[in-house]
Amino acid sequence: MAGQTTGIKKSLDEHVNLIRVAKGIILSFLITLPCFFMFALFLTYTDFPEKYTSIAVFITTVISVLVASAYSTKNVKHKGWMNGCFVGLVYVTVLYLASSIVDKNFMLNISGLLTFCIGAIVGCIGGILGINMK
């Protein structure tokens, strides 16, 4: 049984490098949090219409996932798209759960599903870019 666990772990490591993915997710939130904070300050002290908040969140999400997935795959030998996709999906999941806790409204709707799809696609693109930046 122990040999089987080692084989599963090795197989997983061949497809998704968990340490690099974790570093990518941390990087994505190190990008996101200051951006959200600066945007919140901007909204507080200006007359900027709040209807553009979702666009700012979307742009921040795309940039964070793209940079983080590229970073997480720059030293990976293969399957960069898979590592990047994983970074994007985990990032969006954590962001979605955090926003659901704050809003006290956990509901998955079309907008949420679209966000997951965009996170996965942007993560794949970042993973492809990262693996080719050698």
Give the number of DSSP strands.
Answer: 0
Helix content: over 70%
**Overall domain count:** 1
Rg measurement, Å:
17 Å
Q: Enumerate how many helices there are, as a single number.
A: 5
How much of the sequence is in beta strands? Answer: under 5%
N-to-C terminal Cα separation, in Å?
39 Å
SS class: mainly alpha
Biggest sheet, open or closed, and with what strands and sense? none
Order of helices and strands: HHHHH
The dominant shape is globular
Unreliable stretches: none
Report mean pLDDT, rounded to a whole number: 84
Concise overview:
This protein has 134 residues and is mostly helical. It has five helices and no strands.
Entry keywords:
single chain, 134 residues, mainly alpha, 5 helices, 81% helix, globular
Question: Could you please describe the fold and organization of this structure?
Answer:
The protein has 134 residues and is an all-alpha fold. The protein has one domain (2-131). Helices cover 81% and strands 0% of the residues. The chain is built from five helices and no strands. It has helices at residues 2-15, 18-45, 53-73, 80-103, 110-131. The radius of gyration is 17 Å and the shape is globular. The relative contact order is 0.16. The model has no long low-confidence stretch (mean pLDDT 84).
